[in-house]
Each structure stands twice: as C-alpha cells, then as structure tokens.
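User: Thanks for the earlier help. One more: Cyclic nucleotide-binding domain-containing protein. Can you show the sequence and predicted structure together?

Assistant: Of course, both are below.
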Amino acid sequence: MFAPPSPRLPRALPAEHRAKLLETAREVSFPQGTRLFEEGGHADRFWIVRTGTVELDMHVPGRRAAVIERLGHNELVGWSWLYSPHVWHLGAEAATPVRAYEFDAAGVRALCEDEPALGRDLAQWVGRVVAHRLHCARVRLLDLYGPCGAGSGV
C-alpha cells in the first residue's frame, strides 16, 4: 500500500516562518523509555525531533498498545495541541534517547493569531501530518488485525 512521505519541518514551512517558530522553542532531552504523553491527556506542547526516535502508539483494549509510527529527525511529535479540545489522540514514547525542540502550544497558537500567514502555513503543515498519521494508523491496524495481507498493498 502506498505510504505518503512524512511531512518534515524543513520543507513544510517557508524559511521565515520556520525561523519564527524555532525562536519560541526550547531544547529538551528524553531518555529511552520516557513517555512524552498518553492518549487522552491534555495536549499543551509539541516537539520537533532533532536526534533519536519517538514511537507513536494507540491503545487497543485487551492488547498491548500498537505502535503506529516511528518518528525521527525533523519530524513533528504531537498535533493535538492545535485543534480543540487539545487532547492527545495517540501516545508517544522515546524509543531511543531523544533530543528535541519543545514548543508551548498556547504560545504558538498566540503567535499564529498575531501572524495569520504563519498560522495558515502551520495549520496546513499540521493538517498534512494528521492525514499522514491517519494513513499510518489504518495500515498498521490492518496489518495487526485485518485479514492476512490486508495492509500490505492488496
């Protein structure tokens, strides 16, 4: 099955908007195994991975959480902060030691209100990320629970 490329930061935003967004970031590190957030929790921040790998997972009743996607360099971790009610739709865990840029969601939303062009571009980027994640979740769940081979391009 076709998997669209993950929308990464360098080509996702114009240089001036990328620079403005990065001005609001702070650098953080997470040891392997750290839970960044839980499905259903309050989404008040997001990250762009600098180094390492973050796994996105989905709660599956009666089973172990299903890893939906692995994110790495320049990829967005968390999109629920942008859309009301600001609740995480997936969980996330550092699969390796991770260094990332962390952003305060309320501050970025305020920046978007002050600079509508940046807000539009950021919303379009995050929308592409959401579409990509939905595709990955569908394919992964078909691989795990669908008829044999359902998610592999049939």
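User: Great, one quick takeaway?

Assistant: The chain is about 35% helix and 25% strand.
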